[in-house]
Design a protein that fits this description.
Strand content: 5-15%
Order of helices and strands: HHEEHHHHHHEEHHEHEEEHEH
Helix content: 40-55%
Structural class: alpha+beta
CATH architecture of the largest domain: Orthogonal Bundle
Low-confidence stretches: 1-46, 360-381
Mean pLDDT: 83
CATH superfamily of the largest domain: Porin chaperone SurA, peptide-binding domain
CATH topology of the largest domain: Triger factor/SurA peptide-binding fold
Number of domains: 2
Number of strands: 9
Shape: elongated
Radius of gyration: 28 Å
Number of helices: 13
Distance between the termini: 28 Å
Oligomer: single chain
């Protein structure tokens, strides 16, 4: 069964996931404590405010800091045209602001309906400590957090928020989720592809790359030399002069050389097409002719094969029930958040109203890597 069908999520894991999500803006979000709006200040013009949510201001600096933090943690697509990059950043800004609005609303509800006591928080932290291997004391946990450069009080605040969110959502889920075996069977029958393990082969290879270290070399000459060397090695393999793994360790330009060229057991669409076609056409123990890809010249040996198979329902049942339960919880949670937004007093200053979302701009697929450029060391995706 594919990875997105999860096993049952424990409460502590849910809380930690929520904690991490909220911690990303923990030091740059608005003051979300439930305060009484300053009525006198309301008469004066406000500056630098992006939005006011139930009387609580989210400022431009709040949003800027949260966006900067989010962008710093993301890997921006390389080579993105400037106009696409600006649109991408604007989309990040809008989604970040939306998250901050939700945070204000959720924090208010937690304070009103699902506040976490100090005893509950301490008990949770003690369970976390006891679950470590070896177990930690609370004091040891504090020292570990301090050593990582974080504030223990800030960590506690975010964990408290996560526990409160869990408590709040559990109240919404109560009595609304009842996934049966019949539901699981229906989902299984309608989505058999999700439970299929595709055909896979285990391949090893020797990669010979054209030597382009001399800037004056003729690329065609470099390719011809690399191809000739690959054919020379293939002849040695065919004549059993040396075994495949030994030749791979001594000659292959792929990081897999250290493993005798082994790339592991992989399904289709893992390797570049010429390599894949050659590998899947071989029987176990067979060695290919020299195969050319954008990375160079390969000699491929298939060392294992697994036919496609489908997990039977009895094996999949519990995972399906857990997955359907998770989806139902997500639906209820999203609907609840939307209801909070509908009932909230959300006020944008003139000219700062949210923009209508534009269609997502799809990026053109990158061109294949230059065969003369050093390829990235990604064994399974690049076959190098």
């Amino acid at each position: 069964m594919k990875d997105h069908l999860h096993t049952r999520v424990e409460v502590s894991v849910c809380v930690l996931i929520f904690f991490v999500a909220f911690a990303s803006t923990a030091n740059c979000g608005p003051n979300t404590a439930p305060v009484e709006p300053n009525r006198a200040a309301e008469a004066a013009p406000k500056t630098g405010i992006t939005v006011t949510v139930n009387g609580i201001d989210i400022t431009e600096s709040d949003v800027d800091a949260a966006v900067a933090l989010r962008l710093a943690r993301m890997k921006m697509p390389s080579g993105m045209p400037p106009q696409f990059l600006e649109q991408y950043k604007e989309e990040i800004r809008q989604s970040t602001l939306e998250d901050m609005i939700v945070r204000v609303l959720v924090d208010e509800k937690i304070e009103a309906e699902a506040a976490v006591t100090e005893e509950e928080l301490t008990s949770y932290l003690e369970r976390i400590c006891a679950a470590q291997r070896p177990p930690l004391t609370l004091e040891a946990l504090k020292k570990r957090i301090a050593a990582s450069g974080q504030s223990f009080d800030q960590v506690k605040q975010n964990i408290r928020r996560g526990l409160g969110y869990q408590k709040l959502m559990e109240a919404q889920w109560a009595g609304k989720i009842n996934v049966t075996e019949d539901d699981a069977r229906k989902y299984y029958d309608e989505n058999l592809k999700l439970f299929e393990t595709p055909e896979r082969v285990r391949a090893s290879h020797i990669l010979i790359k054209p030597d382009m270290s001399d800037p004056n070399i003729d690329p065609n000459e470099a390719k011809a030399k690399a191809k000739a060397k690959a054919h020379e090695l293939l002849k040695k393999i065919q004549n059993a002069d040396d075994d495949f793994a030994t030749l791979a360790k001594a000659n292959s330009a792929c990081p897999s050389a250290a493993r005798g060229g082994d790339l592991g057991l992989q399904p289709r669409r893992t390797w570049v097409k010429p390599f894949e076609e050659a590998a899947f056409a071989l029987k176990v123990g067979q060695v290919s002719n020299v195969v050319e890809t954008q990375f160079g010249y390969h000699i491929i040996k298939v060392t294992g094969r697994e036919d496609s198979s489908i997990m039977i329902f009895e094996q999949a049942k519990d995972k399906v029930i857990n997955e359907l339960t998770r989806k139902r919880r997500d639906e209820i949670s999203k609907a609840y958040i939307e209801s909070l937004k509908t009932k909230a007093n959300i006020v944008y200053p003139p000219g700062k109203e949210p923009k209508v979302k534009k269609p997502v701009v799809k990026q053109p697929k990158p061109a294949p890597p230059d065969s003369n450029a050093p390829a990235k060391p990604q064994d399974t995706n690049a076959v190098e």
